[in-house]
Amino acid sequence: MALAAAAERVAAEFEYPKEDVIRGVEHFIKQMDEGLSKQGATLSQIPTYVTAVPNGTEKGLYMAVDLGGTNFRVCSIQLHGNSTFSLTQSKVKIPQELMVAKTSHELFAFLAKQIELFLKTHHGEHYTSHVERRKSYIGGGVQNTEVFQLGFTFSFPVQQSGINKGTLIRWTKGFDIHETIGKDVCALLQKELDALNLPVRVAALVNDTVGTLMARSYTSPGKTGTLLGAIFGTGTNGAYVEKLERVTKLQKMGKDAGDVDSSTGEMIVNTEWGSFDNEMKVLPDTPYDNALDKESNNPGIQMFEKRVSGMFLGEILRRALVTLIKDPAVPLFSDEHSNQNDMHSTTNIHDNSNLYKQWGLDTSFLSITSGDNSGGLKITRQTLDSEYGVSAASAEDAEAVRLIASAVGKRAARLSAVAIAAIIIATGKLDRPTDIATTNNATLEVNEDDVVDVGVDGSLVEFYPNFEEYIREALREVPQIGVQGERKIRIGIAKDGSGVGAALIALVADKAT
Ligand code: ADP
């Protein structure tokens, strides 16, 4: 009994009640506004220079490349114009020596070479006709009709100053080429493509969250266009459609703001919401969150992400479990057959268990245990044994683990709802005339024109049981949304933001120029 009570006590520490959700939404809206008006705010609200979302009728053949971490992905995307597309892709591991090369040239020439190889393999006809045409073309330059427009997903911190212009702020994820810092990465790639005479133009620099928004807007069944693209994977982030006039910092940036296409009156803004409330004014905090942050390599930073995303949830659970394991009054994973006087033989945990290692518990375990319907939580117990060195965990042990894991997962979903709710409210997307007609009738069908579409991606939202339902529950608790508003919000998985999403950005960039 002591174990169940202790687990309930810990689970209760992760409760994130309605009042806190409401307070969180208010603060999020405030930080959104600050980010739109000045540089260096907590919520970065980065202007992306993408000024339109697709509606599914777009057509054509585009290219996309993705330099994210270990791999370089090259794809071509045929948009069929009916919300569907076909994708051809290749993937290659980046050689270690190029990640730390002396000059940008070595890395970017390698990338261009992969693009050439891809064209030769998958678009031989196109490639050959290009070469032939170039031989006979007098006066230089390739004709526009045969040039592939390419979206470049580059998942490193950049200062963007145009749809296909952005300078590298710093490398992360094991890359370290000093010479690249401060240079325009699109121009670097274009230079190497030109050196190979490839019929490819780097049309857009793409953030993966923006790609998610574009991919969803193209494939979603609605006709209103997608408002928000959100990622709940290793990290968390969101990009949404904002009124251009509200991005007031663009004017303050003067000529640094670069070229802005104002024809649609809108611009997609990359919130970088992982850093929401780094000041810890409204975010929930437990001793486990606190210790995780202090022992992380960036204390005080990405405080929202540290409570929401896949990289961190497993570690939060691990710390909560270790606290219970170390508490002599709590019989978690205790070995009934051991000598109670010998501290080292009172648990069923191997000394080198991953439970004792920082980052040793993967967030996928939260999904496994929260969704475990097997008798006596057999699946949880088996996983504890095979992955975490806990032999002979009892059903009570597994029940305690599941209770805490579910509390950590549910809090993450409710926090996600704070970001989603704030963006829906701040953009006024629920304030449409038909709302007045429907507010008094809970049984009315949602009018297709009133749908607010949200595209999501990432293993957490895809695989954590009931993640969307927990988000919805919290959305209903926000007064400006309520039961009526929540029914108008459509949430759908948007896969492949760095493929089709990047291609779509290349398309809108091409149309805008
Ligand atoms: P990325 O965000 O890196 O593109 P993913 O969307 O697959 O890739 O997210 C990876 C993160 O999701 C990791 O932190 C991992 O621990 C977590 N994860 C993987 N599988 C699951 C799962 N079944 N349930 C919850 N989280 C998961």
Quick rundown:
The chain has 513 residues and is of the alpha/beta class. Helix content is 42%, strand content 16%. Residues 137-145, 339-345 and 435-439 have low confidence and may be disordered.
Give the strand line-up of the largest sheet. 1-11-10-9-12-13
- Tell me roughly what share of residues is in helical segments: 40-55%
Count every beta strand, where a strand is a DSSP E run of 2 or more residues.
13
Shape: globular
State Rg: 25 Å
CATH homologous superfamily title of the largest domain? ATPase, nucleotide binding domain
Q: Within the CATH hierarchy, at the fold level, what is the topology of the largest domain?
A: Nucleotidyltransferase, domain 5
Hetero compounds: adenosine-5'-diphosphate
**CATH class category name of the largest domain:** Alpha Beta
Mean pLDDT: 90
Q: Could you tell me the strand content as a percent range?
A: 15-25%
Which consecutive residue ranges, at least 5 long each, have pLDDT under 50?
Answer: 137-145, 339-345, 435-439
The CATH architecture designation of the largest domain is 2-Layer Sandwich
Would you tell me the structural class of the helices and strands? alpha/beta
Largest sheet: 6 strands, mixed
Oligomeric form of this entry? Answer: single chain
